Amino acid sequence: MGPFVRSAGVRAGAAGLVACTALTACTSAPTAPTAPTSDPAPRPARAPASSEPPSATAAPPGRTCTEPLVLTRPHARGPFRLTARQARARASEAVPASRVDARARVAVVEGMHPMRRPHAYPLRTDTPCPEESVRPVTLTVVGDVMLARGVATASGGDLSRPLAATAPRLRRADLAVGNLESTLSRAGAPTQGGDSFGADPSAADALVDAGFDVVGLANNHTGDFGPAALVRTVARARAAGLRTFGAGRDLAAARRPAVVEAGGTTYGFVGFNAIGETPAAAPGRPGAVQVGMPPRTGPLDRAGLDRFLRDVRRLARRVDVVVVLPHWGEQYVHRPWPVQRQVARDLVAAGADLVVGGHPHQVQGTSTVGGALVVHSLGNFVFDMDFAGPTMEGAVLETTWWGGELKAAELVPYRMDASFTPRWLRWPEARRVLAPAAPFSGPAFRF
User: Fold this and answer.
1) 199, 152 in Cβ contact below 8 A?
2) b/e string for 304-339 if b means 16 or more Cβ within 10 A?
3) pTM of the entire structure?
4) Contact at 8 Å (CB) between 352 and 308?
5) Burial level of 17, CB count in 10 A (0-12/13-18/19+)?
6) Residue 269: how many CA atoms within 13 Å on its side-chain side?
7) What are the tens digits of pLDDT across the range 94-138?
8) How far is residue 136's CA from residue 53's CA, in Å, rounded to a whole number?
């Protein structure tokens, strides 16, 4: 049995293999699994979401369906690609997809990922048919995106250039989200001197063209050119087709989540800034959602965090998947502060399914908390911090969801070139990007 596989469920083996030659002959539909409990945390009550893979319609009662039969191994061993013949030779090690969660790396067979393309996956096993099914959704998250200053200069005025190498992969995702670490307007005096990041308004179009759907604005640079520029940034991003969250013309607007539907599943995005510098949004005052936290904004503001947790609880009752992007922690380190772990547990207890932090400018630890995934920092995605190696590299997080259940997660490393364009890395060079965060990660993500 592979790593991080739930013991309950259908028994797998060579006898259970089905070679699927036509999509219509093999409807993928596993039974609903039990949530993993690697680090238990209480979850709020919410309407149950189907965790079955996709089907155009539910199968008639009494019919037997099939689901992918997959091979797994630890994330630390890198990409796992097999031919159908190789996979069948290892059939005794395979398990039904319904028993696997995001803590394991699954084998891609003949170019097909079992969690993303369960209908087409060539190895299958019988399973009871579900009452209803949903389509798998790939949600991709990137780290800090800053398209001003040195990045703009290197682009020669074409802000699609630093995003070009990664755009094809981002476009394949059903949803792509990142932290926009700049304004889209310079309609005001710079508030942080040379560290005031004001990107050309065309950056919004470049992000949309590169595959982005949603951007978080709860960070310490959204206010770099004052309140008017912040309001214009939100308006420009939305005019380009981006959903935004975390900052706005007043507190109510800043707290308003971005809610997006994909594949029959609803995703809600919220975030907060714990670094300061951008003014805290208030009634009648533009700014970002703010929660005070060490090391930058004093001791943990419990009252502010409780207000944010209430927003998370409300969102969890409204959507299937809650994604939180906190801007927190210490710059230029791989180790998360203990308070980050504490707050992450509180976020999960309130209903967060995925927590992905920003601001450290380096990759930090990844772990599971109950059934949720927490990534303390993905590092810089596009930034002009060429003074150190770790600030010129990072990882993209690719997640796959079956309804409200996280079925797969993969950290995909890259390194920026001299023009600040991130470029994908091959294993084992990719592993070297993730290794410094391994001591601060959960067992499944110790590269």
Assistant:
1) yes
2) bbeebbebbbbbbeebbbbbbbbbbbbeebbbbbeb
3) 0.88
4) no
5) middle
6) 27
7) 999 999 999 999 999 999 999 999 999 999 999 888 777 779 999
8) 6
Domains of the chain: 14-128 (no CATH), 137-445 (3.60.21.10)
Collapsing DSSP states into helix, strand and coil, what is residue 8? coil
CA distance 426 to 414: 9
Closest CA to 228 of 191, 272, 180, 177: 191
Specify the pLDDT at position 64. Answer: 80
Choice among 50-64, 65-79, 80-94, 241-255 with the minimum mean pLDDT: 50-64
What's the one-letter identity of residue 383?
A: F
User: Average pLDDT, whole number, for the chain?
Assistant: 89
Whole-angstrom distance, CA of residue 374 vs CA of residue 366 = 6
Q: For Cα atoms 431, 405, 27, give the angle at the middle one, nearest 5 degrees.
A: 100
**Rounded distance, CA 384 to CA 194, Å?**
13
pLDDT at 167: 99
State the DSSP code for 118: T
Q: Does the pLDDT value for residue 427 go beyond 50?
A: yes
Torsion angle in degrees (nearest 10) through CA of 215, 350, 362, 3 = -110
Residue 31 pLDDT class (50, 70, 90 cuts): very low
Residue 172, SS3? helix
Q: Considering just the CA atoms, what is the radius of gyration of the chain in Å?
A: 22
Asked whether the beta carbons of 95 and 69 are under 8 A apart, the reply is: yes
Confidence label for 61 from pLDDT (cuts 50, 70 and 90): low
> Percent of the chain scored above 90 by pLDDT?
83
38-69 as b/e, with b when 16 or more CB fall inside 10 Å?
ebebebeebeebbbbbbbeebbeeeeebbbbb
Cα gap 238→43, rounded to integer Å: 32
CA distances from 76 to 105, 404, 410, 444 (A): 9, 26, 11, 8
- Let me know if 152 is exposed, middle or buried by CB neighbors in 10 A (0-12, 13-18, 19+): buried
| Residues 144 and 383 sit within 8 Å (Cβ to Cβ) | yes
